[in-house]
Write a structure and sequence with these properties.
It holds the Pfam family DUF3108. InterPro entries: DUF3108. This is DUF3108 domain-containing protein. It comes from Bradyrhizobium macuxiense. This protein is mainly β. The chain has one domain. 10% of the residues lie in helices and 52% in strands. It has a 15-stranded mixed beta sheet that branches. It is globular and about 50 Å long.
Length: 276
């Protein structure tokens, strides 16, 4: 994966299961993130989310930065939108584009009720006989990476409760189908340079590849064996949705970290129905 794709993956990768309950609310997030490798800045990105009474949208942009940009410049963007049904975020479309000096690639998906109805990769990648094929069953009951990175805590329980972490999700990113399993680690206080200062729910993440990947790829083997990947989640104001504030992945070169430098979230009152 090019550096820009790695950064976008950190920003928009699906690491969380969207729940199935919760009261209607409205909220917005405008966040800026910095990616580092062994403490050295390698990328920057932004993430905007709008949650309405009956619809939502999310978009992210990222790119290489610092010394890495001189060697492997690249950018990435992603977007998802859909409806809110009984408190659940139900995506209808997802798009992700990565661009480097060598190539540009765009993934598009159409979803309905948690199932992938159609998807494409442009330009179409070559067929690899070693890649585990995607079946129709693999495209059912899944999340796209952008929607999947927003965790809905159902009911009226405490947002930072351990059970909020204890979940799992099936994800399809247009190329690969995988499961991500979460478990509770701790609650800690985080502070952005601008915006949010408060508690964060820290979860462990376990990556389980299912299909659409090449088993002998070292990065797949490495991620599947990791037991020290963690993500810190904080709420979007006015909602019961938690989103990533920080993510840390051990690598042979040192820790890869994505962390919010600015995290500004605002709540708006639910829309009142018009009366005659």
């Amino acid at each position: 994966m090019p550096p820009s794709g790695w950064l976008l993956g950190l920003l928009a990768g699906a690491f969380l299961l969207v729940g199935s309950d919760g009261a209607k609310a409205q909220g917005r997030l405008d966040a800026q993130y910095e990616a580092t490798l062994a403490g050295i800045p390698v990328g920057k990105g932004s993430w905007t989310i709008e949650i309405g009474d009956d619809a939502f949208s999310a978009s992210a942009q990222g790119g290489t930065a610092g010394l890495l940009k001189a060697f492997a410049g690249g950018t990435g963007s992603g977007a998802s939108q859909g409806r809110i049904v009984n408190g659940t975020l139900v995506a209808t479309s997802y798009t992700a584009t990565t661009t480097t000096s060598k190539k540009s690639e765009t993934i598009r998906m159409v979803l309905a009720g948690g199932n992938i109805k159609d998807y494409s990769i442009e330009p179409q990648p070559p067929v690899d006989a070693d890649r585990i094929p995607i079946t129709e069953a693999h495209k059912k009951g899944v999340f796209d990476p952008m929607t999947g990175s927003m965790l809905r805590v159902p009911g009226n329980t405490e947002l930072m409760a351990p059970d909020s972490c204890r979940t799992a999700a099936g994800v399809f990113d247009g190329r690969m189908r995988y499961d991500l399993k979460l478990d509770y680690k701790r609650v800690e206080t985080v502070k952005a340079e601008h915006g949010y200062h408060g508690p964060a729910l820290v979860c462990a993440i376990y990556f389980v590849p299912i299909a659409g990947y090449i088993p002998d790829r070292p990065v797949i083997k490495y991620l599947a064996a990791q037991r020290n990947i963690e993500i810190a989640l904080v709420p979007i104001a006015g909602t019961r949705i938690l989103v990533p504030f920080r993510m840390k992945i051990p690598t042979p070169l040192g820790p890869a970290m994505l962390e919010a430098t600015s995290f500004v979230t605002t709540a708006a009152p639910p829309r009142v129905a018009k009366t005659q």
